[in-house]
Each structure stands twice: as C-alpha cells, then as structure tokens.
Design a protein that fits this description.
The complex is a heterodimer. By secondary structure, chain A is an all-beta fold. Helix content of chain A is about 0%, strand content about 60%. Chain A is built from no helices and eleven strands. In chain A, strands 2, 4, 5, 9, 10 and 11 form a six-stranded mixed sheet that branches. Chain A has a five-stranded antiparallel sheet with strand order 1-3-8-7-6, with no helix packed on it. In chain A, a hairpin with a 4-residue loop joins strand 9 (about 85-95) and strand 10 (about 100). Chain A is globular. Chain B is mainly beta. Helix content of chain B is about 0%, strand content about 55%. Chain B contains no helices and eleven strands. Chain B starts with a strand and ends with a strand. In chain B, about 35% of the residues are buried. The mean pLDDT of chain B is about 90. The chains are: A mainly beta, B mainly beta. At the A-B interface, strand 4, strand 5, strand 9 and strand 10 of A face strand 4, strand 5, strand 9 and strand 10 of B.
Chain lengths: ~110, ~120
C-alpha cells in the first residue's frame, strides 16, 4: 500500500525567506507526483505536476523536484510572502485507478 | 477553475437518513473521483469512475455507493448516514493527456455534518 509522508507538519518563517518542503513515498511505481495548495476551508489548488520521467518542474517562485528511485520530492519556495501561507499537500498518482495518495500536508505560515 | 461544481456545498442531516452529493464537470473528462478529508487522516479515496457506468471502490468505500449515468455527473450516496461520515467531501476530475500527464483538479468541496 502506497504511503506518503510530509515533513515538517508545520513551518513558520519570516517573509522573504527561501524554504523547502519535503515529501516521501513508499512505492516508487508511480505515474506522477502532484503538489497542491489548500487554504483554510477551501478546496485544493494544483501547483505543480511532475511526471515520473521528469526530475523537476518550475512555476514562478515554485520549484518541485522528484527522485523516484529514492521515493522523495521537495517543493522549494523562493522569497516567501505572507500570501504563501497555506497547507501544502503532496500526492502521488499510482495504481490502476490512477488515484492520488496524499500526505498529511505541511502547514506554512509566512510572517510579515 | 477546472469547471467542477459540487452540490450542495453544505449539508446537515440526521443519522440514518439517505444523502446524495453531486459532482458536475464541464470538461468531459473520463476519470472522476470522490475523496473525503478528515483531520488526522488527510484525503482518502472513496470511489472512482473511469467512464459512464464504470465505477470501482477506493480505500474507504464502506457505507457509500456511486453512480455515473452521464459523463458530466458523478453522484455519491450515503444510504444511511452515520456520524462517522461527517467530513468534507471533494470531487476530482482527470484526463490522461498525451505524454501521461494526468493532473487532477478538485471541486470546492461539500461540508457534511451528520448529527
């Protein structure tokens, strides 16, 4: 059974700092890995999708990397802003249903 | 906005009553999913569909049934709601694009409270 772990569970940083969120998964037989953002009481917003054949993806200040063989991904956020405060979820796509298996998330607070 | 709506957005019901949640998409995607989100458990798959009338169970399917009679609609039914089904329910859609890209897009969620 696929399991996804995210570390740390919570993170508080001052504005402007660069930061890294970590994600690990137990079964390397994945199709893709997806990072989401969730604001309190809201739905999930897709940030980045990395296909299993790729090593990284970038979107603006966000960069996600994937090391499929070791079962790890990182999300790098450059020059953090208070508007980046949210919960960040990592999920892998695997199985015949191509379903998402989620980590528990990292709750990020960026202090002004 | 990936063209996904869920209804109702909020519902309070009593134990033992039937409840149906609706997910509607305008994207004509083949795959549709129902997840529930609970503190301490994260998001977990309930049921999914890979085409009209083609559905299968996910990780936490007990107590739930689904139906998909049209591409655009995926219904989740709680035949007899229990307090343990109090949760936030999310619908998601996906299409496997060329090159194996299958980004999942999520609806806004339905907050269900079973008293």
């Amino acid at each position: 059974k696929q399991e996804v772990t995210q570390i740390p569970a919570a993170l508080s940083v001052p504005e402007g700092e660069n930061l890294v969120l970590n994600c690990s998964f137990t079964d390397s037989a994945i199709y893709n890995l997806q990072w989401f953002r969730q604001d309190p009481g809201k739905g999930l917003t897709s940030l980045l999708l990395i296909q299993s054949s790729q090593r990284e993806q970038t979107s603006g200040r966000l960069n996600a990397s994937l090391d499929k063989s070791s079962g790890r991904s990182t999300l790098y956020i450059a020059a953090s802003q208070p508007g980046d405060s949210a919960t960040y979820l990592c999920a892998v796509i695997s199985g015949s249903a191509r379903q998402l298996t989620f980590g528990s998330g990292t709750q990020l607070t960026v202090l002004p | 906005d990936a063209g996904i709506t869920q209804s109702p957005r909020h519902k309070v019901t009593e134990t033992g009553t039937p409840v149906t949640l609706r997910c509607h998409q305008t994207e004509n995607h083949r795959y549709m999913y129902w997840y529930r989100q609970d503190p301490g458990h994260g998001l977990r798959l309930i049921h999914y569909s890979y085409g009209v009338k083609d559905t299968d169970k996910g990780e936490v399917s007990d107590g739930y049934s689904v139906s998909r009679s049209k591409t655009e609609d995926f219904l989740l039914t709680l035949e007899s709601a229990t307090s343990s089904q109090t949760s936030v329910y999310f619908c998601a859609i996906s299409e496997i694009a060329s090159g194996g890209r299958d980004t999942q897009y999520f609806g806004p969620g339905t907050r269900l409270t079973v008293l």
